[in-house]
Automatic annotation (TrEMBL):
This is Mesencephalic astrocyte-derived neurotrophic factor homolog. Belongs to the ARMET family. It comes from the Eukaryota. The keyword Repeat does not apply. Residues 129-169 form the ARMET C-terminal domain. Residues 26-124 form the ARMET N-terminal domain. It is found in: Secreted. Residues 1-19 form the signal peptide. Keywords: Disulfide bond, Secreted, Signal. Its main location: secreted. One of its GO terms (biological process) is dopaminergic neuron differentiation.
Length: 179
């Protein structure tokens, strides 16, 4: 009886871990870029990996330099300066009709985990943010982006400086709450 109970518990625990929701932000740059690229392909090109590879290289040559998409192209091998060549990891599954999320989050992630580390920058909602909950690194980054000195030691000093100068950079967006 106890063995059956243990087996049932093990089954339930594996079922729960397998049914976790996928983080939508995982590989967000890859998913968005490959989706945009796939939408540019004609129906005839979508079924031939060779055509997809040529089209991807062409797509990457037109991507804005120093963007997240450009970095992704570099990682996959779509640029002349790329050190690796993982385009077949995109072209073949894409020609087979495999979902783009699966291509990015499973196949490309296995070959180069840095692909899923690419994330878009999020705008800070100054009306809802609590600076005390941010890490010092993020506080320092905010000041650095504004061009303000950030050579403090204590977290409270970073917060005080941000509160002093935020009106110059944020304007009327955060007037209703002192952070």
């Amino acid at each position: 009886m106890q063995i059956q109970l243990i087996i049932v518990l093990l089954f339930l625990s594996t079922t729960v871990t397998l049914s976790k929701k996928v983080d939508e932000q995982q590989c967000e740059v890859c998913v968005k870029t490959i989706t945009v690229f796939a939408n540019t392909l004609s129906e005839n090109d979508k079924s031939k990996p060779e055509n997809i590879e040529k089209a991807f290289k062409n797509y990457c040559s037109k991507v804005k330099v120093d963007s997240k998409e450009h970095r992704l192209c570099y990682y996959i091998g779509g640029l002349e300066t790329s050190a690796t060549y993982a385009i077949p990891d995109v072209s073949k599954p894409l020609s087979w009709g495999i979902p783009i999320e699966k291509i990015c989050r499973e196949r490309l992630f296995k070959s180069n985990p840095q692909i899923c580390d690419l994330k878009y920058e999020r705008e800070i909602d100054w009306n809802a943010i609590d600076l005390n909950k941010l890490k010092v690194r993020k506080l320092k980054e905010i000041l650095s982006d504004w061009g303000e000195p950030s050579d403090f030691i204590e977290k409270s000093e970073f917060i005080k400086k941000i509160n002093e100068v935020k009106s110059k950079y944020i304007g009327k967006q955060s007037n209703n709450k002192d952070l």
